[in-house]
Amino acid sequence: MIVAALLLSGCSDLQHTRTSGGETPASTQDTPSPPLGMDKSPLATTEAQNAAVLDENNVYFASGSTTVDQDGKEKLRRHAEDLKQNPKKILTLAGHTDDTGSRNYNLAIAEERLMNVSRLLLAYGAPARQIRRNRIGNIKKPPACKTAECREKMRRVELIYLP
User: Tens digits of per-residue pLDDT, 114-151?
Assistant: First the structure.
């Protein structure tokens, strides 16, 4: 406890040290804090990496659309290449929809999205034996998802690798 107090008091003195010219040395100048959520702490870095992995494993769609956009095509190219390099990997495609529309409509649009993602993976060279499809629709929707941003994240095909 005493050691921590001494370290803290020593650190605070360094920030206020002045050179003979009245300027703060470059090595001890106050630097602005990174924006909220953008700090480089191990926890924040891990959370950002996890979010990037989750995003990389999802192909998103516009409302009512079954067309894979350019960003989705690039993701699928990377996944197809990974499947070709790792013949033991099995990829399950899970089709999700938002909570608008009837159950039958959502199941049909989920199936069409799955087919389009599967076709692209095959066109990029992924072996058919490594790809499975699972229609989910809006059955597993998050509770109280009523914003456009939330619904946007629901409209996706999720790429899930089996262990």
Answer: 999 999 999 999 999 999 998 775 555 556 678 889 89
Cα 24 from Cα 72, distance rounded (Å) = 49
Find out whether 114 and 95 touch, Cβ atoms under 8 Å. yes
**Distance between the two ends of the chain, CA-based, in angstroms?**
46
Strand partners, 137: 96
DSSP 117-140: HHHHHHHTT--GGGEEEEEEETTT
Kindly report the pTM of this predicted structure.
Answer: 0.66
Return all residues near 107 (Cβ < 8 A) that are at least 6 apart: 135, 137
Q: How many CB atoms lie within 10 A of CB 29?
A: 9
DSSP state of 79: H
Q: Is 76:91 a contact under the CB 8 Å cutoff?
A: no
161 burial via Cβ count (<10 Å: 0-12, 13-18, 19+): middle
Order of all β-strands in the sheet with 58-60? 58-60, 156-162, 90-96, 131-137
